[in-house]
Design a protein that fits this description.
The complex is a heterotrimer of chains A (158), B (750) and C (289). By secondary structure, chain B is an alpha+beta fold. Chain B contains 19 helices and 28 strands. In chain B, strand 15 and strand 16 form a beta hairpin. Classes of the chains: A alpha+beta (158), B alpha+beta (750), C alpha+beta (289).
Chain lengths: 158, 750, 289
């Protein structure tokens, strides 16, 4: 079966991979590129665990056909750290105990980054609505919301 | 300062450091069930029944097998027939639930599985397996299943717990009873008697990670399994049973687990993955889709519960009569037993009768879900208690205080309570500003309480002191929400070395002694006790080595702040570092194992306060304020105690307001997606305020009780009581959707 | 399944004409779940997002033009559009999560054919037209005529929507969209209501439009309510007529998301509320923004 050759930039590096056209970008990232940080929780865009930034926009990678990523710029959770330095969101999630099992964490971090990129000083309500596409079953969201508030504060002060 | 219960003088226990596994989980490195890839690995796919109840007439796998790239196809006949081998009934049920043999008992029941070189091929091959069914009539609820002449799931099911035993089979697997006193007398002494009937729907644990397993079988009959579960020792045992092999042939490694809440204490994919790997000679990965998770794994029971309770005008409960029927799904084993034990356990009631039925029906086999059985029971009793308090015009906290179980109360299920903290949780709510906060228009306030036993069971731990004075703490309890941190905190406290010097590890089934599942709120208590025991053995060894070094008796050596000290200070102290560095000269490596069956389990209580706002024109209920007070015994890791409290509450809010299994007339689930199975999202909720109550469990070295479960017990009743307060209508059927609220409001205004 | 990304309307049209089992998509937020659920299995997936005309948002004196595949986030984040058509903007902002709105489009939301599509009532009350391209040329169709039944549209298999046209809103005009869902986000509307009113200088309504979603096989207009509103200030008595007319026009089903009785009752509630919000906005808006 002929597979399609895709060229992308992922987390700042040029990456090539081969894929079936019907394969989701999520599965291509996980199976072909070896980046398993984005998770499949539902495969239908309802849980946000597979969130990535696709050309700077927060997207469920399970809803993207892998060939659509040709020429695109992708950020996954693995790309959030900068030369080993944690992103303030990552640090605040750690310090604020904003994760329990951790399966949803990569998606939340990406969605929260997308929010703070657009809105550096969100209200609690804005945070809650911006993260409504990310399901967490462990935390009740409390500590996640607080961690995003804290990260936003730190990033504004920087 | 004197060291007291409130101020035990701990250095690490009760602090909030960063969890040991946190970095991997915020950087995407942590390996969950579906993240492992092995060289040459195949992708598997399961074939499931589209029918709720049917006899399998034939399975034709030839088309699937002939597809290029398909390496194995298996059906029920590829597994030993445990019934024919005279196995225990519960093992037969486990095996038949893993893959059907003669009959399918619910939509989603496994009938076959395939392995192929790609996902796409595996999916195509699964579609090519042809199964021929004779569709049988089905029953979906306890009402249908208990009706006269109901179609039977199991032709040989004779109700247990009934004397004399029935002579006809039925869908009722068992009956349980708890009784005390004289009901007639009890209701006679009441000034008010209220009787209500409640129904609840099956709800799913809703973990975000679908079940996943990778198996790699060797030619010699051994196999390695990597899977996401709440207990890899249990996965080993169940998988061995289904495969008909010795447990020793299987090695199970726990992947990071993406949520479980009880639903990952049972097997689904593991034996299938092993068999596919054996048949294909290659590693096989099986991962469920979300709709498979909903259709075929662990919801908890739908129920019908009747509660009748009496109270005196002074606020004393005089009698309670409870009748409960719980859906078990396809095989016996609903949590009605625990429901019967917990339903009135929080209160001291002189006369009661609790009767429960475990009823099979054509839905997926229920699995444990956070305090299994207790939440639905509490929804009923705590709602009736609210009505009783209203009827005698008594404050809902006061009525609970007047009847609360305390130390010495004979629990409704048998034993006398040791020191418990129910009253303290009630007081914590009463004293909180939320209890008297002003309510806006269309808002109402509800109180409810909950009880859970917590559990002990078997745990093992090994503690290794490394040459540099750090320690590795090895357990076999999968870390589902921060238990590595609580293990490390207790080990740091015991050994007297920094938390950062402890590396907690969850080891595979061949590397550490046996551990029961992570469940029952038992890990911090039981595995924690094993860690403490192992640390104490290490300390004894360290003291012995110091004694040897100083040439004194061991009783001359104390272990203080991470160093050996001579009791009279005649020797310069020897730090753990120093002793570790010299271990080769004092007897070799320093290490200790501890295994135990934990006793002295401390019961947990939670009282919760909920404010809602109900839109009178649409029936939509929004939670505007929420407070939970829970007795943790001792919060080893307050961050993750709060996390358990908040998580439990929010699952309960979902259960109370929106979550439910919806089936069509053919018994197929209509909402197997996160779109239509509506779990709470961030914007649905306010902050969940926590009040950690600490009434230490006297039987645990750190006073731990266990915190994972009781938090989900009160929310449904707290919501129902708040809706009643806001609107005047009493809802008795979960979930309390806008549709039901509006219907009730319409009826009220008619 | 093969993926194709034509770069022009012509290329897309000829691709569709030559591939009988092709499925066009923009964000694929409906298409992927449908394929996964086995509800469709196209041979060719035609990605419309690489055609510039389909991903564009422009305005001139007469109208706004919205490319059919434009991500809805482009609408909600466009201040000019959002101030002129807050109803369309808020409807677009209700289609799923932020993740979904990076991909979802008005074209996809309409052509999916769901009676519960959030953007459709809002587009309808604003008189939106769809420019449909096909091998026989282009045609301009009122949005209200595109969907013919659940999952069905008036488009031939080789046609697709290129863009939407919305006439500039006159002064003293306001629109609104409200929906009822059990949660606060991530749900399909159980009832949706779009409203638009234009006021005369005296503050009375001179033009009104009201459309309901999820209460009938397709989105429906409530003409009786529209007529009742003309010449009024949407006073309480008129709103009671509006609510009754809204309930009356419903022809819903009982399903997993709602009951007939609930939908009828809440349709009236949301109709009333949407009209009130539109009124308020109309009062605040003088002239084109």
């Amino acid at each position: 079966m002929a597979r399609t050759h895709i060229t992308t930039v992922i987390n700042g590096d040029e990456v090539d991979f081969l894929t079936e056209d019907s394969t989701s970008l999520l599965n291509a990232l996980r199976d072909e590129v070896g980046l398993t940080g984005a998770k499949e929780g539902c495969g239908t865009g309802d849980c946000g665990s597979c969130s990535i930034l696709l050309d700077e926009r927060v997207t469920c990678s399970c809803l993207v056909f892998a060939p659509e990523a040709n020429g695109a710029n992708i950020l996954t959770v693995e790309g959030l750290t900068d030369a080993g330095e944690l992103h303030p969101l990552q640090q605040c999630f750690l310090e604020g105990a904003a994760l329990q099992c951790g399966i949803c964490t990569p998606g939340f971090l990406i969605a929260a980054k997308a929010l703070l990129d657009k809105n550096p000083d969100p209200t609690e309500t804005e945070i809650r609505y911006a993260l409504a596409g990310n399901l967490c079953r462990c935390t009740g969201y409390d500590k996640i919301v607080r961690a995003v508030q804290e990260a936003a504060l730190q990033m504004r002060e920087q | 300062m004197a060291l007291t219960e409130e101020n035990p003088g701990y250095k690490w226990v009760g602090t909030r450091p960063i969890r040991p596994d946190g970095l991997d989980k915020v950087t995407g490195k942590a390996q969950f069930g579906a993240d492992l890839t092995l060289p040459g690995m195949l992708f598997g796919k399961v074939v499931r029944s589209p029918h709720a109840h049917a006899r399998i007439l034939s399975i034709d796998t030839s088309a699937a097998e002939s597809m290029l790239g398909v390496k194995a196809v298996i059906t029920g006949s590829d597994f030993p027939d445990l019934a024919a081998n005279g196995a225990h009934a519960s093992d037969i049920d486990v095996a038949n639930n893993a893959i059907a043999r003669d009959k399918v008992l619910y939509e989603g029941h496994v009938v076959a599985a395939v392995a192929a070189t790609t996902r796409e091929l595996a999916e195509a091959a699964a579609k090519a397996v042809e199964v021929s069914y004779e569709i049988l009539p089905h029953v979906l609820t306890v009402d249908e299943a208990m009706a006269d002449n109901a179609p039977l799931l199991h032709e040989n099911m004779i109700t247990k717990g009934v004397d004399p035993a029935p002579d006809q089979p039925s869908n009722v697997a068992s009956r349980i009873v708890h009784e005390r006193g004289d009901l007639e007398q009890g209701f006679g002494e009441a000034d008010v008697v209220i009787e209500r009937e409640f129904t609840t729907k099956p709800v799913h644990q809703g973990y975000i990670e679908p079940h996943a397993a990778v198996a790699d079988a060797n030619n010699d009959g051994r196999a390695n399994i990597w899977c996401s579960s709440q207990g890899h020792f249990a996965m080993r045992a169940y998988t061995a049973t289904v495969l008909g092999v010795s447990q020793g042939t299987l090695k199970v490694t726990a992947a990071e687990i993406g949520g479980g809440f009880g639903g990952k204490t049972v097997i689904y994919l593991e034996p299938l993955a092993v068999r596919l790997s054996q048949r294909s000679g290659r590693p096989v990965k099986l991962v469920m889709d979300r709709d498979e998770v909903f259709r075929a794994t662990g919801p908890t029971s739908g129920t019908r519960i009747k509660v009748k309770m009496g109270i005196s005008n002074g606020g004393e409960l005089t009698a309670a009569e409870v009748w409960m029927a719980f859906e078990a799904g396809a095989y016996a084993g609903s949590p009605v037993g625990a429901a019967g034990m917990t339903v009135i356990a929080a209160y001291d009631i002189p006369h009661f009768l609790v009767e429960g039925y475990d009823v099979v029906c054509n839905k997926p086999r229920v699995a444990a879900y956070r305090a299994p059985g207790a939440p639905m029971a509490a929804f009923a009793v705590e709602s009736v208690l609210d009505e009783l308090a209203r009827s005698i015009d008594m404050d809902p906290i006061e009525v609970r205080l007047a009847n609360a179980a305390v130390e010495g109360t004979q629990a409704s299920y048998g034993p006398k309570f040791p020191r418990i903290g129910f009253v303290e949780t009630l007081e914590a709510i009463k004293e909180h500003p939320n209890y008297t906060a002003e309510l806006g228009p269309n808002q109402g306030r509800g109180v409810a309480a909950g009880f859970w036993f917590n559990a002990g069971m078997n745990s093992s731990a090994t503690v290794h002191v490394n040459e540099n004075g750090t320690a590795t703490v090895v357990t076999g309890s999968p870390d589902i929400g921060g238990s590595r941190q609580s293990m490390a905190l207790m080990a740091a406290e015991e050994l007297g070395i920094p938390y950062e010097s402890i590396k907690p590890v969850v080891a595979d089934t061949e590397t550490v002694g046996f551990n029961d599942v992570t469940g029952g709120s038992r890990v911090t208590l039981a595995t924690g006790a094993a860690v403490v025991d192992a640390c104490r053995l290490v300390i004894e060894d360290l003291r012995a080595r110091a004694a040897k070094t100083w040439d004194v008796e061991i009783d001359q050596v104390e272990w203080v702040d991470g160093q050996a000290q001579h009791v009279d200070g005649s020797q310069p102290p020897l730090s753990l570092n120093a002793l570790a560095a010299k271990s080769g000269r004092t007897g070799g490596p320093i290490s200790a194992n501890a295994s135990l069956n934990a006793r002295g389990v401390g019961a947990g209580f939670s009282t919760q306060l909920c404010d809602v706002e109900v839109d009178p024109e649409t029936g939509v209920t929004r939670v505007v304020r929420y407070l939970t007070a829970q007795d943790a015994g001792r919060a080893i890791s307050p961050d993750y105690v709060e996390g358990q409290m908040q998580g439990g509450v929010v699952q309960g809010i979902g259960w109370g307001l929106n979550e439910e299994y919806i089936h069509d007339e053919n018994g197929a689930m209509e909402n197997p997606s996160f779109l239509d199975y509506r779990m709470p999202v961030a914007s649905d909720l306010p902050m969940i305020e926590c009040s950690i109550v600490e009434v230490p469990n006297p039987a645990h070295p750190y006073g731990v009780r266990g915190v994972g479960e009781v938090g989900i017990v009160p929310p449904m009743a707290a919501l129902a009581n708040a809706i009643k307060d806001a609107t005047g209508v009493r809802l008795t059927d979960l979930p309390m959707t806008p549709i039901k609220v509006l219907e009730a409001l319409n009826e009220q205004s008619d | 399944m093969k993926y194709a990304a034509p770069s022009s309307v012509e290329e897309a049209t000829s691709l569709l004409s030559s591939s009988p089992s092709a499925q066009v998509f923009a964000g694929a937020t409906d298409v992927v779940p449908q394929i996964r659920g086995g509800r469709q299995a196209p041979e060719v997936l035609v990605d419309l997002k690489k055609i510039d005309q389909l991903v564009a948002l422009t305005s001139d004196d007469k109208k706004w033009t919205v490319g059919a595949a434009t991500p809805t986030v482009d609408l909600t984040e466009n201040p000019g559009f959002s101030q002129e058509f807050p109803g369309i903007s808020e409807a677009a902002g209700l289609i799923g999560s932020d993740q979904i709105q990076s991909r979802s489009s008005l074209g996809g939301n309409l052509c999916n054919g769901s009676p519960a599509a959030d953007s459709v009532p809002a587009m309808m009350v604003n008189g939106t037209r769809a420019l449909i391209a096909g091998p026989k040329g282009n045609r301009l169709v009122d949005v209200s005529e595109v969907v013919t039944g659940p999952g069905q549209t008036c488009l031939d298999s080789d046609e697709f929507i290129v863009e939407f046209e919305i006439d500039r809103a006159p002064s003293l005009t306001g629109d609104a969209y409200l929906r009822m869902i059990p949660r606060t986000e991530m749900d399909i509307a159980v009832v949706g209501a779009g409203a638009r009113v234009t006021l005369g200088e005296d503050g009375t309504i001179t033009a009104a439009a009201l459309a309901l979603g999820a209460v009938a096989p397709t989105v429906v207009r409530v003409t009786a309510a529209e007529e009742a509103l003309i010449g009024t200030t949407a006073d309480e008595d008129t709103l009671a007529v509006v609510a009754a007319a809204a309930s009356e026009v419903c022809n819903p089903i009982d399903d997993k998301r709602g009951t007939i009785g609930y939908r009828e009752q809440v349709a009236g509630v949301l109709a009333k509320r949407a009209v009130l919000i539109a009124m308020e906005r109309a009062q605040q808006r003088n002239g084109n923004v």
